[in-house]
Amino acid sequence: MRARVEGGELCVEVEAAFHADPPPPAPPGPTDRLWEHEVVELFLLGEGERYLEIELAPHGHHLVLCLGGRRRVERRGMAIEYAARRAGGRWSGRALVPAAWLPRGLARCNAYAAHGAGAARRHLAAFPIPGPEPDFHRLERFGPW
Length: 145
Hints:
single chain, 145 residues, mainly beta, 8-stranded mixed β-sheet, 4-stranded antiparallel β-sheet, globular
C-alpha cells in the first residue's frame, strides 16, 4: 500500500494478493462491515485520538470512517473515488480521499489486510498488534506516518 497527498487529495494505492474471497452482498461503493470481507485498511491518526479509517476491497467496495476517539465513529460511508481490478492472483486499487478529511496533526498510522473465513481467517498488520484477537483500534501500536 502506498499513500501520499497530491494537491487536495490523499491518493491510496493497493497492490495485493487476491485470495478470491466472495464479495460483500452489496453493489460496489460504500459498504458497511467491509472488515468482515477480503480487505486492505489504512488508519491515519492525528491529535486527540482523531483518526481516519479507509477500507478498500478487491471488488470495488470501500468504507471510510472519521473517528473522534477510539471506536467513536463521527462520520461513515462517505463516497470517494475508487476503482479496483483483479487479474490472475493479484488485485489493485486506487482511491482518492479529500485531504480535508485527514485528522489534524497526522503523525501515526497502521495498515492491515484481512482475508479468509472462520479458522482460515488471516489478519496482517504493518505494525503488529499482539494478542489472540486482532484489534485494529489499538492506537498505541501505530507507527510513524
